[in-house]
Amino acid sequence: MNVTGDQALVKKLNKSIVLERIRLHAPLSRAQLSSQTGLNKATVSNLVAELITEGLVYETGLGESSGGRKPLMLLFNSRAGFVLGIEVSVQYIQGALTDLAGAIEAELVLPLGQHDPAFVMEQIRKLVQQLMQVTPPSPHGIVGIGLGVPGMVDESGTVLFAPNLGWEEVPLQQQLETELGLPVVVDNEANVGAQGELYYGMDGEHRQLVRDLVYISAGSGIGAGIIIDGKPYQGAWGYAGETGHMTIDWNGRSCTCGSRGCWELYASEKAYTAPALSLPAHSTAKLLPFARQGDADTLSVFRDIGRYLGVGITNIVNSLNPGMLIIGGPLAEARPWLEQSMREVIDERALPYHRRQLQIRFSTLGSRSTMLGAAYAATAPFLGRVRVSL
Ligand SMILES: [Zn+2]
């Protein structure tokens, strides 16, 4: 390895460490940064000066002094740039313009009547253009676009297989980067949803405690975003988390994936179209008013979905032993009617040691976890989170 390359990498790493520290723990003085990061004061001063020039950090007021001159405190300028976070789902695409700390500046939803890739691309382009028009002026402008899609995505951002969209091998990231001229990140919707919950759905203290988390996205299908030891778990080729297609009924109904008896046939919105049912509507949003009015069929279907969610969650908890499990996606809105039956099944069936300290929660971000997680995924590379691979 060449020495100059090493020095440049070390500097980049140090700079990202300093920025991350300020981002998560500001206000901080240069002296505090130095003692917290272990970097010497001259290095910290140089890196901070660069971050100030780049508009990412600014100085403010005076901090507490331990005698002598009071230090200037450093803050993160979350409005130094903006990102777009987009969720492509079966029925719609929704996008948010956020600052570099995930605060939403504008939101937009466009319906998706059809799913052929050219049409979806056209809708994404429209959404991006409209959100760009309302982006406030900032030193860096729009620094990236993140997308969460309901399917398997490889490392190059190609959607390999999205059965609910009918997509195979769609090079979404490459096409969008070419057309829009901005860095684009494409990942599975549950993977980015997990990041949304972790980085924008809980405070820093909680984040420190939760090293092992599973985010279940339950909507038109089911996907899981798995975080192990603080890092997204992708599997050997990036396809981990397709929990919606684990078999829970050996002889069950056939699924779009080619298998049968898949979990999502019973515990997602796909359950609404089961042959024996006659529901007043076939989307969660449309069923919620019926549940509120006490419609017996609607209440019974939510109760059953709760039970089936409990079955799949039990399998996940027994296999992975997560510290926290978060349920998100459109079905999380039906929490009042499915939570009890879901918890009963988990209490009855999950192994006692696995259950003991497990926290089960519903998403705090609601239908925004994927969008915000996609925004986070687009922000992270810009903020210089350097990945070192050996
Ligand atoms: Zn399946």
UniProtKB/TrEMBL annotation:
GO terms for biological process: D-xylose metabolic process; regulation of DNA-templated transcription. Keywords: Carbohydrate metabolism, Xylose metabolism. It holds the Pfam family ROK. Gene3D superfamilies: 3.30.420.40, Winged helix-like DNA-binding domain superfamily/Winged helix DNA-binding domain. Transmembrane segments: none annotated. Residues 26-59 form the HTH iclR-type domain. One of its GO terms (molecular function) is DNA binding. Belongs to the ROK (NagC/XylR) family. Transcriptional repressor of xylose-utilizing enzymes. This is ROK family protein. It comes from Paenibacillus kribbensis. The lineage of its organism: Bacteria, Bacillati, Bacillota, Bacilli, Bacillales.
